[in-house]
Each structure stands twice: as structure tokens, then as C-alpha cells.
TrEMBL record:
Keywords: ATP-binding, Helicase, Hydrolase, Nucleotide-binding. Pfam families: Helicase_C, ResIII. InterPro entries: Helicase/UvrB_N, Helicase_ATP-bd, Helicase_C-like, Helicase_Restrict-Modif_Enz, P-loop_NTPase. Residues 291-453 form the Helicase C-terminal domain. The keyword Nucleotide-binding applies. Its EC number is 3.6.4.-. Residues 32-183 form the Helicase ATP-binding domain. SMART domains: DEXDc (SM00487), HELICc (SM00490). This is DEAD/DEAH box helicase. One of its GO terms (molecular function) is helicase activity. It comes from the Archaea.
Length: 720
């Protein structure tokens, strides 16, 4: 029995199907090229033609020829998961994308990984993998990780698979490092016509989709982080707008909006504003322009006339003109072959542009909103959407320039550029689902959202920070502001005291106050809930201050990751115990002034979410056992000194908050004080699998805070 017959038998047993006639033909040519000594082969086949089973067959062939181990490279973690679930049914297969290198060390015959992770583990791979299979190999064109990895591994054979049809010239230029290791590229190209000539049963799709990541470089990430984490001073809504503009439209459009905001006084002068101004004066291309150049290297209208015209959509004029300049300068496309379609053109100029495009004289049309409707743009071979409108109507109007397919042989390409770890991927998901609910066929749009969202950016940042700090957690303020205030209590109270609206309300209620009296009432309003009921203006003023202290999209991402059981938190016992100690001091002073020996406060609460963030320590959920262990040890020691503190727990489903109530007493030889602090923990999922561990952590955290406050009190007021 030959290899293909044996492979068909395995396929039948594992999946209930065998290779199609055209797949067998491709497999035989691929094996023939390997038999004749080709070491660097790429198979180009249309989406939906079943490349995955051919990748599996390639691995089977190489292992049958004595190759020790095969490394399969996928561009994303999502595809690693997806492909691993299939491969493991046919051959013993490991999966590696977390960077711990376990699957590499376990001697699986086949390991599926991302190139980034394989590079991190490359020291363990030397001499291990003599065959490499690259799925979606077109991503290697602009992916430095692929070339660096192959240069390190030095395998005997590299076989790539792709749905795209890049020119040999583009491939040779981009994979030169791989070529130095395994020789010249051999491209086996099968388009729809060729597959149908082999197998008349082959049915090509009407459209295929490709997503190119428009990655931010190091300097762009620095600017984006100032917006995402809310570090740039300015109006909150303006910061949100600038963050969206930067990720969706790139540098030119962002800088245009940024300088306009400065002119209108929406962004005050600061070191961060100066940093962004310097960035805007630089000449570098935006991340969106760089991604578009990558796309036009793969889908090259100069070398492939049937792709013309390629239509590129963007919502900002500044971005459209940047695209045109970049294409002319970087890709050497004649200026009269690239046109921008905006409202700047008169009606006659638009008609003339469209007429030239229909004759084939225009290679690329870069269009803003004016081209989405009302202009008869010719049917495109490739549609590039460099930003995704949230409106399903606008999204569908753009798609309409692509999917007016007159023949099943006329397959089109829909390319989307998205900025990883920004809200763009969430926008795409919303647009696609809106279309789906309206009955539009979006089955060919495949998304891997989770690792592309800002939540993943935040999670990665937290893990990197905790690793750098050699800690299991990091403070919320350090993560968001880049610095932790020395005294969060003073930081918050000062912010309240500097708010004119808040000061006016306190003055109206109590009249003129000394600085000491004003600080006392500010503290009491913060911690005693019914005092805020004096006026809705008090609540609004506090909310306004807390919003300024907790701005940036990062706030919502923290909440989501906590709800999703990917992060959790506890309150800093040192910082929050200062607040508890301050209340004990206030009660003691009240007792002494009124010649009492007993005082209590049963209304003392930490229930404001925006305030509590200043004391929050965040950790990845996988660290919860280590943190519990440390808290148990610390609380156990203090219990032996001060006795047990009772903590009662309740859950508020409307606010999704755990409410931890406790009470304790102190006696300093002169006065007896009793305090009942309440601590709220928000974003708590009552159905969490980790519910019991989280509740234990909350109880320990509350006890730790109260014990620390008692220590401070006795150190101050009890003589040895």
C-alpha cells in the first residue's frame, strides 16, 4: 500500500472522509518534488480547498522518511488550538504557545506552535526539528519571526501552504533568510481553473478573506499607551476619541485631531503632550500605511492585471492622502495609477476617475466615505478595508463593491487591516454580527478575536510587569499611571479638595472651615455613606473626581478581565489600613473631647469603586493560590496576637459586588473604640468556578487590613 492509500485509510478512520481527486494530485506532485531533492516548497491553493489535510500528509511523508520531528507553525494561538484538535486525531501532536516549552520537551513527533513562541524556546529545539511546515505562509512575507526561526533551526526541509497568490519575486525577496538555509523556493501554484481541470467536482468559493495586522512599532505603542492608560491629561471624552482615531486611522489623522484638540484647549500642556507633539513631527509612515504596503506587495496590481482596480477604504482624508504618497514612493507605482476619491473632487472629476478605472487605467482607488455609496465604483478584484465602520449599513455598502460576483469562477479577495490589541477587533466583531443578524452571509469571515483585543494587551502587560517586579501582583496605579502615589489617601483627598464644585458644597453645608476641619469632613464624606445624601451635587462631584483618576479604556478592560476570571485583586493592606487608622484616630479624638470612654462607628464604608481602585493590587488568576498562601500565613500570625476578627459576606447581584462586613474593637487604656468597616469588591461573578477561593481571599484581605490598622493604633497610643 502506497503512502497516499495508507493516509486515506487513516483519514477515513479518524474523520470519515478521504482525499478528493484534486488533493491527491497536489499531494503526488508535492511528494515528487520532495523526492527530487527540493527543500523549500510552497503550495498555493484557494481557501476551502483543504490545505490542512495536505499539511498532515506532508508530516506523515517526512516522518516515514526518517525525519525525527516536525514543527508546524501557525500565525496565531487561535489557529494553534484549532489545528491541534484536528492533528491529534491523526498523529500524536503537541501544542505550544505559552512559552514554557513543555510540548517541545515532551518529544512529540509533531508540535504545533506560533513562530514567536518557537523562537522563545529555540534553545531547546536545536537539532530537534528537521522538518518545518508553515501554515498561512504568506504571513512569513512580513514576519521577521519566521525567517529568524528558520535561520536558528536550520531544518532539512520547509514546506509552506497559503491561499494567496503572491508573485515569486515578492516571495524570494521576503524569505531570503529561509532560502539561505534550505535553498531556492519552489512554488506549486494551483488556482481555481487548474483545480477544476484536475477535478470537475471542485467548487470554488465566491470570496475569500484575509486579515493583515497593522502592528504598532515601539514609538507608536508608547503614544498609544498614553491614551489607553489615560495618562495624557485632558478631557476624558477627547482622550477616548484620540485613542480610537490613532488605532483606526493612523498617525496622520491622529496628529491632525490632536493638534486641533490642543488649539481648542481640550488637551493642556504637559510632558506627555510634548512627547506626542514630537512624535507627530517625525516623518515615519503610520502603522496603517505600512500594513497597506504589505498587502499591495502580496496582491500586486502592477503584476496581476486581473486584480485591478484594487479599492482601499478609509474614513479619514488625511489617511487617504498618506496612503497615496506611500504607494507612489515605496512601491514605485506611477502617480496617475493611484487615485484618491474624496469629497475634494468635483462631480466631473469623480466621473472622469471612474471612467478611467473602468478602462483599466487606474490600479488603485483610495476612497473615503464618498465612495461607499452614490458613486458607481467598478467591481473590485480586491477590496482593502483599512478601518471597520461599526455601522452595519456602511460595512455592507463597502462589501458591495466586492461581492457583486457575476460568475462562480470570479473569486474575489476581501482584506481587512486591524490594529492588534486595540478596540478595532471588537468593532469588527460587532459589524460582522450585525450583518449576520440581518441575514447577510458572512460565513467566509473567520475571526480570531481574543488575542487581538485590548484585554489581551492589558493581560500581557500585567504579566510582564509582575515578572519585572519579581512579584505575584502589581498595583493598579503603577499599571495605569506608570507610578504609584506615595500616599493614596492624600492623593484622593487632595483631588476632592481641589474640586471647586465639591468645595462649594461643603462650604454651603458648614460655612467657612479651617483646613483641618475641611479635611475632616472630606474624609467623613468619603467613608460615611449617608453624609453623601446631603446633596446629589456631592455624589456628582465625587464621581467627576474619580472619573479623572480612573480614565482611559484600561478601566473597562480591568473590569472585563476580572469578570472573565482572568484577573483578580485584593486591596493594599498598608494603604487602606491608613484609612481605617484615621477613623480610629477621629473616634478617639471625639471621645476625648466629649469626655467619653466608649465611641463607635457602624457606618464606616469603603464602597466607592473609583476610590477603591487607588488601593487595588491586580494579579493574573493563576497566581491566586500563591497569594492565598501568603495571606493565610500573615493573617494567622496576627490572629494569635489580636484574636479572631469576624467577617460576614453577602452578594449584591445588581452591582455584582461582594460586601464584606466586619467589626473589631481596640482599647488603649483610656478609651474603648468599636468600628464596623464595610469593604466592597466589585465585578464578582457569583457563578465563578473560583468562587470559594475568591471569597477566602476577600476575608483574609479584610482581616489583614483591620489587623494592620490595629497595629498602627497600638503603636501610636499604647505605651509599652
Amino acid at each position: 500500500m502506497d503512502l497516499i492509500s495508507e493516509f486515506n485509510r487513516k483519514l477515513e478512520n479518524a474523520f470519515g472522509f478521504t482525499l478528493h481527486k484534486y488533493q491527491e494530485a497536489v499531494a503526488r506532485e508535492l511528494i515528487d518534488q520532495l523526492e527530487h531533492g527540493e527543500r523549500f516548497i510552497t503550495v498555493s491553493m484557494p481557501t476551502g480547498s483543504g490545505k490542512t489535510v495536505l499539511e498532515m500528509l506532508t508530516a506523515e511523508y517526512l516522518l516515514s522518511k526518517g525525519y525525527r520531528r516536525i514543527l508546524v507553525l501557525e500565525p496565531t494561538r487561535f489557529l494553534c488550538d484549532q489545528m491541534h484538535s484536528r492533528w491529534k486525531q491523526l498523529v500524536e501532536t503537541g501544542k505550544e504557545y505559552e512559552g514554557n516549552c513543555w510540548s517541545f520537551l515532551k518529544n512529540y513527533k509533531v508540535v504545533i506552535s506560533t513562530p514567536q513562541t518557537a523562537l522563545k524556546c529555540v534553545s531547546t529545539l536545536q537539532g530537534e526539528f528537521d522538518g518545518v511546515i508553515i501554515d498561512e505562509v504568506h504571513h512569513a512575507i512580513t514576519g521577521k519571526y519566521y525567517n529568524e526561526l528558520i535561520a536558528e533551526l536550520r531544518p532539512k526541509v520547509v514546506v509552506g501552504f497559503t491561499a494567496l497568490l503572491p508573485s515569486k519575486k515578492a516571495y524570494r525577496a521576503s524569505v531570503s533568510k529561509i532560502g539561505k538555509v534550505v535553498g531556492e523556493l519552489k512554488l506549486l501554484h494551483y488556482d481555481f481553473q487548474k483545480l477544476i481541470s484536475i477535478d470537475s467536482q471542485f467548487n470554488p468559493p465566491k470570496a475569500l478573506v484575509d486579515i493583515f495586522d497593522s502592528e504598532l512599532d515601539e514609538r507608536e505603542r508608547g503614544v498609544y499607551d498614553l491614551l489607553y492608560f489615560g495618562r495624557l491629561p485632558g478631557e476624558v471624552r477627547i482622550i477616548y476619541f484620540l485613542e480610537r482615531t490613532f488605532s483606526r486611522y493612523g498617525k496622520k489623522a491622529f496628529c491632525e485631531s490632536f493638534f486641533r484638540a490642543i488649539e481648542k484647549g481640550k488637551i493642556p500642556k504637559s510632558k506627555y503632550a510634548d512627547e506626542i507633539s514630537d512624535f507627530c513631527r517625525s516623518e515615519q509612515l503610520s502603522h496603517k500605511a505600512r500594513a497597506l504596503l504589505d498587502i499591495l506587495t502580496v496582491y500586486n496590481p502592477k503584476e496581476t492585471p486581473k486584480l485591478r482596480p484594487i479599492i482601499v477604504f478609509t474614513s479619514r482624508k488625511a489617511t487617504a492622502y498618506e496612503f497615496k504618497d506611500a504607494i507612489i514612493r515605496e512601491l514605485d507605482v506611477p502617480s496617475n495609477k493611484v487615485e484618491v476619491l474624496t469629497s475634494d473632487l468635483s462631480k466631473e472629476q469623480r466621473k472622469e476617475l471612474i471612467s478611467r478605472a473602468k478602462k483599466g487605467d487606474v490600479y488603485i482607488i483610495i476612497s473615503t466615505l464618498v465612495g461607499e455609496e452614490g458613486v458607481d465604483i467598478p467591481e473590485a478584484g480586491v477590496l482593502v478595508m483599512t478601518d471597520v465602520p461599526k455601522s452595519p449599513l456602511r460595512f455592507y455598502q463597502r462589501l458591495g463593491r466586492l461581492i457583486r460576483v457575476s460568475s462562480p469562477m470570479n473569486t474575489k479577495v476581501f482584506v481587512i487591516t486591524m490594529t492588534p490589541k486595540t478596540e478595532e477587533y471588537r468593532d469588527l466583531s460587532e459589524a460582522v454580527w450585525n450583518l449576520y443578524r440581518e441575514g447577510v452571509d458572512v460565513s467566509y469571515i473567520l475571526l480570531n478575536l481574543e488575542e487581538k483585543l485590548t484585554t489581551q494587551k492589558l493581560l500581557d502587560y500585567i504579566k510582564e510587569t509582575t515578572k519585572m517586579l519579581n512579584s505575584k501582583w502589581a498595583s493598579y496605579m503603577l499599571l495605569t499611571q506608570g507610578d504609584k502615589p506615595k500616599d493614596p489617601v492624600e492623593y484622593y483627598l487632595s483631588a476632592l479638595k481641589s474640586n471647586e464644585k465639591f468645595k462649594e458644597i461643603i462650604k454651603q453645608r458648614f460655612g467657612e472651615l479651617s483646613d483641618e476641619e475641611f479635611e475632616k469632613w472630606t474624609f467623613m464624606v468619603t467613608t460615611i455613606f449617608f453624609l453623601r445624601a446631603w446633596s446629589d451635587d456631592i455624589k456628582r462631584a465625587m464621581k467627576e473626581v474619580e472619573k479623572i483618576l480612573n480614565k482611559g479604556k484600561v478601566v473597562g478592560d480591568f473590569d472585563k478581565l476580572i469578570k472573565d476570571d482572568r484577573l483578580f485583586y485584593f486591596y493594599d493592606p498598608e494603604g487602606l489600613s491608613d484609612m481605617v487608622f484615621m477613623e480610629l484616630e477621629r473616634l478617639r479624638k471625639y471621645c476625648k473631647e466629649n469626655q467619653k470612654t466608649f465611641c463607635e462607628n457602624v457606618f464606616f464604608r469603603f464602597d466607592r469603586k473609583g476610590f477603591l481602585r487607588l488601593f487595588t493590587n491586580i494579579f493574573p488568576i493563576e497566581n491566586i493560590n500563591d497569594i492565598l498562601k501568603e495571606l493565610r500565613q500573615r493573617v494567622s500570625k496576627k490572629e494569635r496576637i489580636f484574636g479572631d476578627i469576624y467577617v460576614s459576606i453577602s452578594y449584591n447581584p445588581s452591582s455584582k459586588a461582594i460586601i464584606a462586613n466586619t467589626h473589631f474593637s481596640v482599647f488603649d487604656g483610656e478609651v474603648y473604640l468599636r468600628l464596623e468597616p464595610q469593604f466592597n469588591y466589585y465585578n464578582f461573578r457569583d457563578d465563578s468556578k473560583l468562587k470559594e477561593k475568591k471569597l477566602e481571599l476577600i476575608k483574609l484581605n479584610v482581616k489583614d487590613i483591620c489587623y494592620r490598622a490595629m497595629e498602627k493604633y497600638f503603636e501610636t497610643y499604647v505605651k509599652n
